[in-house]
Amino acid sequence: MSLRHLWAIIRKEIHHIMRDRATFILVLLTPIAMLFLMAYALTVDIEHVPIAILDFDRSTTSRAFVQRITEGKDLDLYALVDTLEKVEALLLRGEIKAALVIAPTFEQDLVALRGMSLQIVIDGTEPESGGFAVEHIGGRAEEFLSEALASYIQTLDVSLDSLQPIDLRVRTLYNPSLKPRVDLIPGLISMVLGFPALSVALTLAHEREHGTLEQVMATPVGRAELLLGKMIPYVIVGLINVIVIPAVARLTFRIPFNGSFPLFFLLSAVFLFALLSMGMILGVFIRTQPAALALSFLVIFFPGFFLTGIFFPIASMPEIMRLESLGLPGTHYAIITRGLFLTGVGLDVLWPYSVMLMGLGIAFTMVGALFFKKKLG
Amino acid sequence: MESNDYAIIARGLTKRFGDFTAVDGIDFAVRRGEIFGFLGPNGSGKTTTIRMMLGLLRPTDGSVQVLGVPVAERAKQIRPRVGYMSQRFSLYNDLTVLQNLRFYGQAYGLNNNLLRERIQHALQMAGLEGRGHTRTKDLSGGWRQRLALSAAILHRPELVFLDEPTAGVDPVSRRAFWDLLYKLVAQEITVFVTTHYMDEAEHCHRLAFIQRGKLIAHGSPEEIKRDTMRGQVLEIAPTETAKAVKVLRAARESGRLPLEEVAMYGALVHVVAPQMEQHQAAIAAELRQADVEPGRMAIIEPSLEDVFIACMR
Amino acid sequence: MLKWTSCVRRIWSLSIKEFIHLINDWWMPAFMLFGGVIELLLVGWATSRPITNLPLMVLDRDQSAASRTVVTALENTGTFALKALAPDMETIQDALERGQINAAVIIPPDFDNEVASPIGRPTLAILLNGAESIPATAALRAIEGVASDMGEGVILERLGLEPDDFAGFAPSLRVWFNEALSEALYTTPAELGLMLEFTTLLFAALSFSRERELGTLEQLLVMPFSSMEIIVGKSIPVILVGFFDFVLMLSMVHVAFGVPVRGSLPLLLILALGYLLVELGKGMVISVMSRTQHQAFLVVMMVGMMDFMFTGYAAPVESMPQIVQQVANVIPAYHWLTILRGVLLKGVGLEVLWPNVLALAILGLVIGTFSLRYVRRALN
Amino acid sequence: MEETPPIITTHALTRDFKKTRAVDSLDLAIQPGELFGLVGPDGAGKTTTLRLLAGLLDITSGSATVAGYDLAQQAEAIKSKIGYMAQQFSLYGELSVVENLSFFSDLYDVPRAELRERTERLLTFANLTEFKDRWAAHLSGGMQKKLALACTLIHEPEILLLDEPTTGVDPVSRREFWDILTELYLGGTTIVVSTPYMDEADRCSKVGLMYAGRMVVCAEPQQIRAQIEGDLIELQPDDWQTAHALIETLPGVLEVQTYGDLLHVFVDSADKRLPEIEAALKKQSIVHRGARRATARMEEAFISLIKRMEEE
């Protein structure tokens, strides 16, 4: 390995990146924009879900209940209707996401402690807001019930603070609100850094398409030097993102950063090395840019989304996929980012993952160098 | 000028890119049915001029009429009537020879029978019979060039623009290619060609020399030779060509001999000087002094290459 | 008449050429056709699987019958893989910090007594690892379920109610259009719609940028194609492959995940074709704007993400700020997803979907006209 | 003459592509310091040969040594000894002239102490000094070729492998280019150059003619030219097609080559046949100009040889 060769390739690649302004800006901006949009879209606070209420009871209690249901800004009363057909029509047209049907016996059953005669109807095509409605209506119903029954229960000489006698004292560490955005954003960093990895594959395909690779192959430059030299500038591009992302996350989404930033930076560099080596392997096997694009989805983006445990817990996966996820740099990096952003741990905890990342990076580079022939045809 | 007699009329054609003037007010006219050679060094504005004539670039100033149609306004009308072979990229590399030809033919609206016939002919002309299913990228440079040319004239255009059509083509094919151009011209097809082979330029009916965007000579090869060549050319066949050139150049530098130009010409040396008869003996003496036998010496008619080089210097 | 046939012939020649490119460099079309299918399989598979096997620690300080009931109930949920009972808090703390467990349940020493006493208030302490909110939330739901089942028994006992009399305090639930509340049923159509958008956009975006980068565009421009013919000729493969892609993905989600087609299939196919045209227009604009394929790709990713945000797939559009909701109306993918869900799951037709169809048509007209103009100008 | 061991040798060197055999058991020996011209019709295997020698392609069979290294085993070691220039422009367009030079000087490990001096010398050599900060993509074709040559020369290689370095280059630049090559040749560098220009082949010290993947002739230019039988007469008739047919039938005419409307006639004796031809043309009232005895150049020799090959 000659540092001089390496540096020559790096410098050339940096010139390329810098001189094509439009691409340079896009390369820098895309990961950040993607992260921002994904984070926003995935974690919008659900509110103002339009619902319809069909009150067959029309009692004081049911009216008070309706009042209670719609007092927050989580659920919006879209319409008070009088037939099930109207509920159906509204659901079909997508004007409401859920409906609450209060049975004629609502008040009676409640007083007799027979339970809550309620039905919640939700639009199964959008369970996101439907599920939300179920949860919130259920919660309100329970509250309402507890209050309504409080005086009655006291007469029975039992203690029942609520209708949920088992008191769950939940403490959520590292992300007290349990908002998904807080942990998805650190997780998603590994996804969006797939873009620099793709760029590496593209530049190699580009050099093949334009014949410049032929001239370089005729020089004594080593395979590993060539591959590493093409990779390192994109590691740098990725690192610029790595610096910007925590700042963006903090300013726009108020994501904390509890760990050591230098450590984050260092491990991100290792991760980029590993991920970009994957991109490089693509570039080694692929001749044209469209092919590199297509393959990058199958190799980098899809697995990065599904198999790295950002959205789907690795523990729940079948054995074979769990093994595969171990071979993806994103899996280890997601653990590292969550640890540094949220848990605030250090290398004492994260070292196994860091070692894995490094190992994967070296392994991928070696595979790339092994299959990269300095030959044409 | 009767526009019917002319395939191309360019008036004050100018193209500027920013503050760089690529083509600077050139005027020329190409008669129908002639081979018009457009010569100039690399970067002198040849390709830019062709692009303007094809309506790919809008002239900054001036105008050009192609086949009687003003290009700037109605480029679309002339496209079916002209053929164009660009310098490097006229073929799709991942397509096979046949697929490329078929694409050209259909694009220019040839019907199936005619297309089959023309493709057959084109393959023959390019020497690619039996290799129709080879991917274009697997062809050697010269063959690709021949294929591109056959494709450009597949639809028998009235006027064909050829931008360095024979670059990298071997001499045998080049001759076959020029034979073909003559056949085309016999069918009243006009050929506008750029080339770096000056021996090819000799075979053009008329020529234009362009340098730094300006037209510096215009006329038939004979006219150009007569009007632009200062001095005569002495052809020498010395024993050691390289050494002879060195010796004569040294003589020129030191001012011992009033030579305009000393150039190696294959195994021969061409020396240019005014009133060559007076210097012939001195040249021979100079060579002998350096132990080079001058061999056969003769004043010859200047070749276009001699003229071109004299012009461009 | 003659003019027409030669025009068709030119378009034909261009489309054939494009198809040959596709066959020769087959990764891209293969990705278009099967990448979507793979993505859908992954999504369908991942979302239809319950979350199981979450590592959980229990610290049982009570060691009573009641506490053991809790532990057994937790195990029976199937959500958890119970790691060994923890000896002390430190172990739990450490495991949480290392991210080895998603949740921990601590049963206090007096749990049994509190359950038994009529005025007791049994407590369970729960520690969640918020650094992984998705499994943490799933864990919390499961624990809540266990607690409320237990709680119901306690209530019945304390109030002296008969279980048969008791209807339960939770409201009953009915899910329309998706009775089993299968997640695959609503994620896969949305994913299908988005994949169609993305692949079409990407494919279209490469069409000109690639020829420009390789230098062949110049030759194309001097051939007697009108710019309209070039656009149409280059569009046909995109539309065909995109449409085929759609049919393939649709059949796949139907067979693999039982996604029904409750509405009219012909209507859906026609609208899919229309939607393809709209996305094609966008892709072509990106294509002539970009100098390189790399640029085209990055712009496609940005645009695709932007659309994704407005489709209501990840988050309900109703919950977004007013201004964002307005923007959603001019995003074709938003209307397309509404149509797709409507026809597939709700079984509605034009009588309900006409506002979306109309919006899509108007957007198509605007985008189409603009892109035609723009691409033509760029080509001339 | 004493035999020095050749710097490039090949034995039965063969390279197959999917269906075609591009290079077919090629035997070649190039002496150090030779300026070796590789000529041949399109598709004869010139580019493949050069790529093989540069270690850019795997050998199908046979063997070769370049600068003392075995091509199959030590391809990488060869690369620092050679300078290779690809047929297509294959430098980085977005890098400036100087940046391209320094890029390759790094890859070739040019001693830093000499870098400055060499860069300046090559820039002067290639007449590129005033363009040294221009992007390579913005140079004219001829300048690009000269820059490419300069880049392959930066490490002062023992062997230069140039694949059609002057294709698409104007005559002035072409001469400059060959002046540079001649100087290198005189300085002792071994040069292997493929070219479609026969006047360039004439400037080589040795010429190898390839045909269908084989080396069919390998000799000094004079020897090749000498292989042509008879004298050459050049003339330009008005109706060249009829004239061609007519002259071919005349006695003493060995071969007629056309070049556009120019005819090259090989005859057993020019002095004897020139008047006969002119008379024959006059009889058919074919007007002609510029009939003269000409010196047969490499080009005519090449065409003659290729025709013979094709007939076989």
Summarize the structure.
The complex is a heterotetramer of chains A (377), B (313), C (380) and D (312). Chain B is built from eleven helices and 14 strands. By secondary structure, chain B is α/β, with parallel strands linked by helices.
Annotation, overall tally of beta strands of chain C: 5
Fraction of residues in H or I helices of chain A: 55-70%
| Helix-strand makeup class of chain C | alpha/beta
Mean pLDDT of chain A: 86
How would you describe this structure to a colleague?
- The complex is a heterotetramer of chains A (377), B (313), C (380) and D (312).
- Chain B has helices at 46-53, 71-78, 97-107, 112-126, 141-152, 171-186, 198-201, 221-228, 241-254, 276-289, 304-312, and strands at residues 6-17, 20-31, 35-39, 61-66, 69-70, 82-85, 159-163, 190-194, 206-211, 214-219, 232-236, 261-265, 268-273, 297-300.
- With 313 residues, chain B is α/β, with parallel strands linked by helices.
- In chain B, helix 3 (97-107) runs parallel beside helix 5 (141-152), helix 4 (112-126) runs antiparallel to helix 5 and helix 8 (221-228) crosses helix 11 (304-312).
- The longest helix of chain B has 16 residues, at 171-186.
- In chain C, helix 7 packs antiparallel against helix 9 and helix 10 packs across helix 11 (293-310).
- Chain D folds into 2 domains: 8-225, Rossmann fold (3-Layer(aba) Sandwich); 230-295, Alpha-Beta Plaits (2-Layer Sandwich), CATH 3.30.70.
- In chain D, the strands form 3 sheets. Chain D has a 6-stranded mixed sheet, sandwiched between helices. A 4-stranded antiparallel sheet of chain D has the order 2-1-4-5.
- Chains in contact: A-C, A-D, B-C, B-D.
- Strand 5 of chain A pairs parallel with strand 4 of chain C, so a sheet runs across the interface.
